[in-house]
From TrEMBL:
<feature type="domain" description="Multidrug resistance protein MdtA-like beta-barrel">
    <location>
        <begin position="206"/>
        <end position="291"/>
    </location>
</feature>
<feature type="domain" description="Multidrug resistance protein MdtA-like C-terminal permuted SH3">
    <location>
        <begin position="297"/>
        <end position="356"/>
    </location>
</feature>
<keyword id="KW-0732">Signal</keyword>
<dbReference type="InterPro" id="IPR058625">
    <property type="entry name" value="MdtA-like_BSH"/>
</dbReference>
<feature type="coiled-coil region">
    <location>
        <begin position="139"/>
        <end position="166"/>
    </location>
</feature>
<dbReference type="InterPro" id="IPR006143">
    <property type="entry name" value="RND_pump_MFP"/>
</dbReference>
<dbReference type="Pfam" id="PF25876">
    <property type="entry name" value="HH_MFP_RND"/>
</dbReference>
<dbReference type="InterPro" id="IPR058627">
    <property type="entry name" value="MdtA-like_C"/>
</dbReference>
<feature type="signal peptide">
    <location>
        <begin position="1"/>
        <end position="28"/>
    </location>
</feature>
<dbReference type="InterPro" id="IPR058626">
    <property type="entry name" value="MdtA-like_b-barrel"/>
</dbReference>
<feature type="domain" description="Multidrug resistance protein MdtA-like barrel-sandwich hybrid">
    <location>
        <begin position="61"/>
        <end position="192"/>
    </location>
</feature>
<feature type="domain" description="Multidrug resistance protein MdtA-like alpha-helical hairpin">
    <location>
        <begin position="101"/>
        <end position="170"/>
    </location>
</feature>
<comment type="similarity">
    <text>Belongs to the membrane fusion protein (MFP) (TC 8.A.1) family.</text>
</comment>
<protein>
    <submittedName>
        <fullName>Membrane fusion protein (Multidrug efflux system)</fullName>
    </submittedName>
</protein>
<keyword id="KW-0175">Coiled coil</keyword>
<dbReference type="Pfam" id="PF25967">
    <property type="entry name" value="RND-MFP_C"/>
</dbReference>
<dbReference type="Pfam" id="PF25944">
    <property type="entry name" value="Beta-barrel_RND"/>
</dbReference>
Amino acid sequence: MPIPRILLSTLALGVLVATNLTATASFAQQAPAPSVIVAPAKIMDLRESVDFTGRLVAVQKVDIHARVSGFLEKINFTEGKKVTAGTVLYEVEDGSYQAALQQVEGSLAAAQAQHDLAVIERDRQRQLFASNTTPQSKVDIAEAQLKKAEADLVSLEGSKAKAELDLSYTKITAPFDGIVGLTTADVGALVGPDSGALVTLTRLDPIYVQFPVATALLLEYREGVKSGKYSGGANVGITLPNGRQYPEKGTVDFIASNVSQGTDTVIVRAAFDNADSTLLDGTLVRVNLEQEDKQEVLAVPEQAIQRDQQGAFVMVVGTDSKVELRRVDVTRSARGQAVIASGLKEGEQVITDGVGKVRPSATVDATPAAGG
């Protein structure tokens, strides 16, 4: 009896499905384990730190002014270069000041001669009075003339001191070591006390960085110092606008005693060595305050931390290459590392790359991270 055509079709379909299922199972058995990157949980020095935005401020910065009037004869510096304290920056025409000093010196010499004559006359009148040959009134007049001569000397000595001072002001000097800016006056210009700043002198070594700290954070830190949680000192570092870390560490040397009411912050200042003038006045930088004492903690790379509604977890790869989901308590992050309070042990391997390809209990092909 011939087999019905519909039955033959059903049998063929069943064979095809069975073949496909067998092929799928065979492929699943032969599929390679997913590749992941792992890193070990490590004990490392991860001191607590906090970042702020700060601005560099020159230790000393002054505008140089002319203190006497006259024409500029010389400019003795190169703009933008360093000068030392006492360097003569400008020379003002001094002829009139030399003449004024000579005139006062001449008047002072004449006044000294008058004084000497007044002393002689006073002494002579005293002798005559002692011999009863002159009245007391003449002695009194001689005494008064001497006092006037002495007063003239004092006045002229003051005039001489002023003339000498004015003459010294014709040479405008640098009050401290620093870098000179652009001059606002050229040789031949008429300058004086009302001419404004001739140049700005800036001292960059050392240099300050000033940054605002939230009052609550400052109070928390001080309480931590009292309780022994923190040491009294801190390492201060700065990151430049180009992202480079400045190699020198700074020292906090000032904390303001008042709070800015607009921002509820306190100004803190740190000093940095700046021998090569890398740090420039007014630059905006990132300031990092780091705990001074070592703090050994267990940590893993931040990218290993996953989160869901129940909290933080990591995928741990055991010695049998199987994956385990492990709940962890993350206290903080620092320098790309997550600090683990509980849930992991030192040396356990956590997945840092490829976590999306695995599930708990899956077998993986784990490769250590570079440097891990």
